[in-house]
Amino acid sequence: MAEAHQAVGFQFTVTPDGIDLHLSREVLKHIYHAGVTSWRKRAIRFKNGILTGVYPASPSSWLFVVIAIMSTMYARIDPSMGMIDTIKRTLPVSDYMTMQSHTVLSAVLFATGLWFSLILMLRYILKALLSYHAWIFESHGKMSFSTKLWLNLLKMFSGRRPLLYSFQASLPRLPVPSVDDTIRRYLESVHPLLDDKQYNQMEVLANEFKTDQSPRLQKYLILKSWWATNYVSDWWEEYIYLRGRNPIMVNSNFYAMDLLYVTPTHRQAARAGNVVHAMLQYRRKLERGELAPVMTLRALGVVPMCSCQMERMFNTTRIPGIETDFVQHLSDRKHLVVYHKGRFFKVWLYYGGRHLSPSELETQFRKIIDDNTQPQPGELKLAALTAGNRVPWAQARLKYFNQGVNKASLDAIETSAFFLTLDDEAHGYDPDKLRSLDLYAKSLLHGKCYDRWFDKSFTLIAYTNGKLGVNAEHSWADAPIVGHMWEYVLATDCFHLGYTDEGHCRGESTKGLPAPVKLQWDIPLECQEVIEDSYMVAKEIADDVDFYGYLFDEFGKGLIKKSRTSPDAFIQLALQLAQFRDKGKFCLTYEASMTRMFREGRTETVRSCTSDSTAFVRAMEDKSTTNTLRLDLFRKAADKHQNMYRLAMTGSGIDRHLFCLYIVSKYLNIDSPFLKKVLSEPWRLSTSQTPQQQLNMVDLNKFPRYVGAGGGFGPVADDGYGVSYIIVGENLITFHISSKFSSPETDSYRFGQNIRQAMLDIRALFDQKEKN
């Protein structure tokens, strides 16, 4: 009862003399601080909203315009060409205002209108400048006069100290490519994969589509591009992610790893405390819009990228539905849900109107770890519902979690800031343990199938040895968005928050913090059977994942750049060579590119298997071919790849256009054999590069061991490979390779060794040239 009384802010007793009121000063003090913090947060958001709303101008520029207009009036010059007099005649006459006051008010209103017009004009100019993409097609280190002029104008009109969302209104819309260009590029991409008969058949289908069906579909798509902010993104989220009824674990979710070589502390609760606090700092900056906008690395970092995906990073959950899921995003959630050994706990993140400190969070997590209570019936594997098929989960949610304690506990999870798993295993890269990176990746990707809440925007995973990782749901955003947050968190953890000599979080922990609350469940046997069924489905998927992680440290981007080749093109050609050696044939290859230079842009596909890349690979496998010819073919293939990547980034890709044409055809009940064929083709080699976006946060020259390991994803095709890679520093490339044990055609370890040998063989071409 003592704990219950401490939670009461006031008590009253009815006596013969009236009501005796007792107030708790401590609780009222916390209520007061919470209110002050809330209003301060609103004020900061309001201020930053104004700064973003008037960008690239500033609020102070309004005063400058007003003073300028007033000065010209006193000089008996009318810059408004009679508009001030018109406004003055329109204003109602008041006994409280003199004629001079009317004139001043009219001038201020005119100046304000002029100021808004100038803002719109500046935004239009900025949007026109950001629509210029010729710079991206120029050779590295070379810049034309027009690009130099564009760059200076862009710097001039971009304003100073932009906030996260300052450029959003100035970003151009994603253009709709012409059908002729898309079909031409598509046929070019499949030509090396088809024999003459198959290619001729595809060409006939493509030409029939271009002539008969595409004009009508394209008109609707152009209409949507005029009306909607982005003609792709909403359909991409809905039809690629949310309407899928298969499990999202492995098939959709992806993961990110901790630092490769460094573990700041081996205390699980302390590491979790620091990182959760760093995430709350990031969330505060994100909600206030105080983060710097992400810029492209080229063009001196002045081309902004869309930040809209970042809005749903926290307080977000994918909610299952019978036919389609939906993404639920809330504002400023003040609690976290923690999973540990089959129990769920609710932990408050605020105390007295402030974030809990790292040491306070460590104390809370330590209490959870020390709690020896057993899971309630059905609680241990409850999260397996999020790992299995979507329809059984949606049905169970409606039937068993719609009222009572089950609804309250599920609401606590789905409305939490994010989800934390205090894992009961130890993982991480250990060079002394065979395939430690493989087990680490599989744990992050699927765990035990019931110890991550796969529907949350992301699950933070803290292992017993102090290592960390993240499992992220894919519908709300793409990997670089999570990567941006993760880079900030790891750098803040290691270089700003730090630990004591004993490995604990720094600072003192406030006494009297509300203890973590164990969530209560009343799960009937019928629901437990559904949970077990989902678990078995998920376990079969997880057990089938064949993973191989490989650290390629023979050379890195430093040596590749010396050969005047794009590191990404170099790796992609090595992957093509490895694929051919692995299977003896080429396949449709997916490389993820981004379209975030456009408003609400997400991704586009680069079809990396080209006629030029296949010619290079065949030359590498032909012993009679000279190294000189092989090198020439390599450079031609690398240039082709770079050009395709640039086309994808600038809105001239193939696959998103074809996807949207297919969606329109379904709405209009138009049957298109060509579009059906295109969208049914399997991607047997799916690849993605994990970008490093905040290179200024860690100086790798001073701290060479503080490198990230990147992240990865599951195989896309049953008989194919998923390959993610991150280029770290000058001398390290980490590969994450996934496939399925059930496929007799794939072996992740074998493919990893083929990649290594392909990288070395391509380097040998350049070494041979230098010797000659």
From TrEMBL:
Catalytically driven reaction(s): (R)-carnitine + hexadecanoyl-CoA = O-hexadecanoyl-(R)-carnitine + CoA
GO BP annotations, alphabetical order: carnitine metabolic process; energy homeostasis; fatty acid beta-oxidation; long-chain fatty acid transport; response to (R)-carnitine; response to bacterium
Domain Choline/carnitine acyltransferase: 174-757
EC main group: transferase
Top-rank lineage group of the source organism: Eukaryota
Location in or out of the cell: Mitochondrion outer membrane
Record membrane topology: Multi-pass membrane protein
Transmembrane stretches, start-end: 50-75, 104-126
Pfam families with a match to the protein in the record: Carn_acyltransf, CPT_N
GO MF entry, a single one: carnitine O-palmitoyltransferase activity
Ribosomal protein found in the keyword field: no
Residues at the catalytic site: 474 (proton acceptor)
PANTHER family: CARNITINE O-ACYLTRANSFERASE, CARNITINE O-PALMITOYLTRANSFERASE 1, MUSCLE ISOFORM
Biological role: Catalyzes the transfer of the acyl group of long-chain fatty acid-CoA conjugates onto carnitine, an essential step for the mitochondrial uptake of long-chain fatty acids and their subsequent beta-oxidation in the mitochondrion.
Name recorded for this polypeptide: Carnitine O-palmitoyltransferase 1, muscle isoform
Species per Swiss-Prot/TrEMBL record: Esox lucius
